[in-house]
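Hi R.,

Here's the input for the adenosine-5'-diphosphate complex you asked about:
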Amino acid sequence: MSKVIALINQKGGVSKTTSTLNIGYFLSLKSRVLLIDFDPQRDLTKSFGISEEQFSIIDLLNNKKFTPTNVKKNIDIVVGSRQLEAYKLKKNSFKDVIEPLKKEYDYILIDCQPKMIIDEVLTINEVILNGTDFILIPLVADINTVNGAFEFLNSIERIQNTSNPNLKVLGMFFNRISTTKVLYKQLYNHLTHLNEDIVFRKTIRQSESVPQAIAMQKSVGEYAPNSIGAYDYKLFTNDIIKKLKTFD
Ligand SMILES: Nc1ncnc2c1ncn2[C@@H]1O[C@H](COP(=O)(O)OP(=O)(O)O)[C@@H](O)[C@H]1O
Ligand SMILES: [Mg+2]
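And here is the predicted structure with adenosine-5'-diphosphate in place:
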């Protein structure tokens, strides 16, 4: 049975899409992986060079007979759709359709759009979290992003207490660490002080090879296996596997 992990943060530009792709690649070396593009901007889909496709997330939500698109050995993708923005969501729209797919994969990674979760309105991200086991929150080292992530955890708590008691926080991790290193250390200490287990110790450093790989429609592990980016994502993926085991 697979583990369903949403890479989510209300902020844009924190490496949700990049991390979905690169963690997905390293997981796929030993496991079967499904990636789901739940962002109407379709960045994840485009990073595989897919423009239009027969089946998309809309077909999955509509519970049509559905085959994800195979993109590499051990990696399938549910491609994104611009129509998602106008899709009429129901609380269990995602939970009901993901269940049968769980038997086919070891890991299902979801690339989410950057939007807040609000109490009054049912949004795409809330519908995703109603059918998800774990959330993984990418951060960059600035104070607004870190504060925003804690705000976000309050919304998660509401979902855990109401519609999805199975939802767990796998953790937060810092990405694109470089010139802000001093600030990163302060923010890391601040976060671990608030909650010792919440932040992954391993970070992903700023590395030119990461965006270069995306431009070549590859993960960094394939494009530049000896680069900093590949090294960091490989070790981080191992840490994710280890941390997931602590929840078993
Ligand atoms: N480790 C990294 N080093 C350098 N650039 C990165 C790194 N991770 C992500 N980026 C770049 O940062 C930008 C934002 O990443 P993206 O994954 O699109 O964020 P999000 O999906 O959260 O909006 C992209 O241009 C991406 O190539
Ligand atoms: Mg994105």
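One thing worth noting: The pocket of magnesium ion (ligand 2) is lined by residues 16-17, 39, 43 (CB under 6 Å).

Cheers,
M.
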